[in-house]
Amino acid sequence: MSVQDRIHEFTSLWADQIAAHPWLGVIAPWGISIASLASGVVTLAVFRRGIEYFPVFIGYLLLLWLGGVVFAEARKARAGRGPTLVWRAVDYTVQTLFHGLLLFLLPLYYASTTLTSRNATFLGLLAAAALFTTIDPWYQAGLRRAPRLEIALFGLGLFASMNVAFPLIGIEPTWGLLLSGAGSMLALLPVFRRPEEPSWGRAILRAGACALLVAAALWPLRSWIPPVPLRLTRATFAQSVAQLEPVQPVTSVTAADVRGWGALVTFTAVSAPAGLREPIFHVWRKNGTVLERIPLSPVRGGVPGGFRTYSRKADLGGDPTGSWIVDVVTAHHQLIGRVHLTVTP
């Protein structure tokens, strides 16, 4: 019996089962959704310690790239002919892999996101993509209406993955951001090749041009993207700092106490991967107005509990009453975290 006959036999058997048990027809479209959700739970369980699984993560990413990008044109060429069941299985496998990748990335981006800032938008985009790839009827309907949507999702996944990977090898997050944008376009090279073109020359030119355009577009948008894997592990206002620990940390204090202290101190601890050295700043604001941008010692990665540093502001004006905020930012204005203090009358 040929492969085509076996596929036809299986399809007929499945149709008979649906005819005999109508409830199978209701739940069948959600089968891949259930499988994706189960695989996602497994992914979160296996990778729960995040970047410590970096080598496995890279292997997972390469597998997804092979299935989603390198096979993309082959899958397109096979559409409508041959053993389509095999290619549907490939599609579902790629979808499940992509879903697992997004679930691996989400905790890393969540840890680096300031939810009250604009960089929460990118976290929301990743979460929406993860949900979209989980619900199979949505995913399939979306691809039918916009076939290129799958490539856009792969580009997003590749970009988000590289944006985590580059700082892990010592590249500053901002420069890693630009390299990730360019790299994600170059990784999509097979997609840029048109069927009627005998060589890869034009595809390389298109991919290179897109890489430059994406990198250039990301520069003004860098504040919208969390500086993964940098994250704020501790942050507080305090009366002072002794032996790199905050003394009398506060979230609310009276103006009289602040005058008695003579200054306000902001203590922060920033976690970064080993080998990374990143300049950071404290940007002081009062009632929304920027007062001062204070450079700090560059963060050194690999310090248990995060690299600890602080800034001190003695010039508090005539009346310190109000809402005080200190943003912890990179040299290129990516927001790592934010600290709040209310000074009451």
Give a brief rundown of this model:
This protein is an alpha+beta fold.
Describe this protein's structure:
This protein is of the alpha+beta class. The chain folds into two domains: 3-224, no CATH class; 231-344, Immunoglobulin-like, CATH 2.60.40. It is built from 13 helices and eleven strands. The protein has helices spanning 3-20, 22-27, 31-46, 54-70, 72-78, 84-112, 120-134, 136-145, 149-168, 173-187, 189-192, 201-218, 255-261; strands spanning 231-242, 245-250, 252-254, 264-271, 277-278, 280-286, 289-295, 299-300, 307-313, 322-330, 335-344. The strands form three sheets. A five-stranded mixed β-sheet has the order 3-11-10-6-7. It has a four-stranded antiparallel β-sheet with strand order 2-1-4-9, with no helix packed on it. Strands 5-8 form a two-stranded antiparallel ribbon. The model has no long low-confidence stretch (mean pLDDT 82).
